[in-house]
Amino acid sequence: MVSDKITAAEQNLLHVYNRFPVAWERGEGVYLYDTEGKKYLDFAAGIAVTGLGYSNHKLQDALKSQIDKICHISNLYYHENCGDAAAALNKASGMERVFFTNSGTEAIEGALKAARKYAYTKENGRFEFIAMENSFHGRSIGAVSVTGTASYREPFEPLLPTVHFATYNDLDSVKALVNDKTCAIILEPLQGEGGIHPATKEFMEGIRALCDEQDILMICDEIQCGMGRTGFMFAWQEYGVKPDIMTMAKAIGNGIPVGAFAMTEKVAEYSMKAGDHGSTYGGNPLACMAVKTVLEIFEEEQIVAHVNEVSSYLSQKLEELVQKYDCIKERRGKGLIQGIELTKPVGEVVKKALDAGLVIISAKGNTIRFVPPLIVEKQHIDEMIEKLEIALN
Ligand SMILES: *Cc1c(COP(=O)(O)O)cnc(C)c1O
């Protein structure tokens, strides 16, 4: 557990996190080690970030060699890692233009700006956004403005006045809000932070159709549910509908801070041009080396196929727990982004799990969120269930 030295220095930080009483030292595969040398099975992946787990040698070597050459040049100059990383992302997503950011929040900001610029160029009089209740899109004023959770919003109001909230998976509630000022509809194909709620096929298809009818842009936030997590490279790919703009972050850099928003050529043609947007660090050679290498590893190691191989086992094991324990209401989610909703306080279970050597996190609505590194094997799922049962008892 946390040493005195760490506790004292911690007082210098702004206290905006309810931190767990543990300090990590290193990771190996799907395991984390604390500063006392205790080993933990990791089913949180730094909040769905370290999809390839810890200490992936190919990624480490690529990053080290890039550090030895150059980390930063500013975006006034082109670096081939940037083009390579964008090409790899576009190949995986079917999008055509990428802008790299430093975080998910910035990717959301960029996506909102890109949608506004599209409408501005078209002079179609559209500037409003429709977002979803229970959504999470980040912590800047723009991102909080489209986030549908009151506690994240209220202390910072007034926020953008041009956002309206619909009920997730209720197409009629979206239709009721659409008008000739609607510029874009933003949603997560699977709400992560909001408690692991996947979109229905009818909802995704219905939104796509609404957008097509009226030249409204569909923005999919893939920051948490993307990069193989649902058993598809990007969650929207399961639904047979394609967004106009999508946001990425978390797992695309496996821990190197990087995000991106991407769009189709059709949107790019009317959207941001030189001078409209920028970032000093965004997509620097180190960050793009991470993205490029992560995507190479995804192909070489067939990560998405692996997710599909192991995830039904996770679903099955969690369903067994639902049957066995009265304190578990239901299982939700798919692939390696799943949750169980509890009838007792989730915080206590998460803390007890940590004591038992299992790292899990919660999500809204008393939900335990399982977002392990995508490289987990069945034996790790068994080990997780064993430790979770200790925490549930
Ligand atoms: C984490 C997250 C964000 C914000 O990303 P940051 O990198 O923390 O800024 C936005 N949208 C979703 C769906 C997320 O899960």
Tally of strands: 17
Choose one word for the global shape: globular
Name the CATH architecture of the largest domain. 3-Layer(aba) Sandwich
CATH T-level topology of the largest domain? Aspartate Aminotransferase, domain 2
How large, in whole angstroms, is the Cα Rg? 21 Å
Q: State the domain count.
A: 2
Mean pLDDT: 97
Q: N- to C-terminal separation? A: 22 Å
What is the helical fraction, as a range of percent?
Answer: 25-40%
Structural class: alpha/beta
Small molecules bound: pyridoxal-5'-phosphate
Report on this structure:
This protein has 393 residues and is of the alpha/beta class. The chain folds into 2 domains: 59-300, 3-Layer(aba) Sandwich (Aspartate Aminotransferase, domain 2); 316-365, no CATH class. It contains 14 helices and 17 strands. It has helices at 4-10, 45-48, 57-69, 80-93, 104-122, 141-145, 150-153, 171-175, 201-214, 265-268, 285-300, 303-324, 346-355, 378-392, and strands spanning 24-28, 31-34, 39-42, 97-101, 128-132, 163-166, 182-187, 190-191, 197-198, 217-221, 245-248, 259-263, 328-334, 337-342, 358-359, 361-363, 367-370. The strands form 4 sheets. Strands 4-12-11-10-7-5-6 form a 7-stranded mixed beta sheet, sandwiched between helices. Strand 2 (31-34) and strand 3 form a beta hairpin. Helix 3 packs antiparallel against helix 11. The protein is globular and about 60 Å long. Bound molecules: pyridoxal-5'-phosphate (PLP).
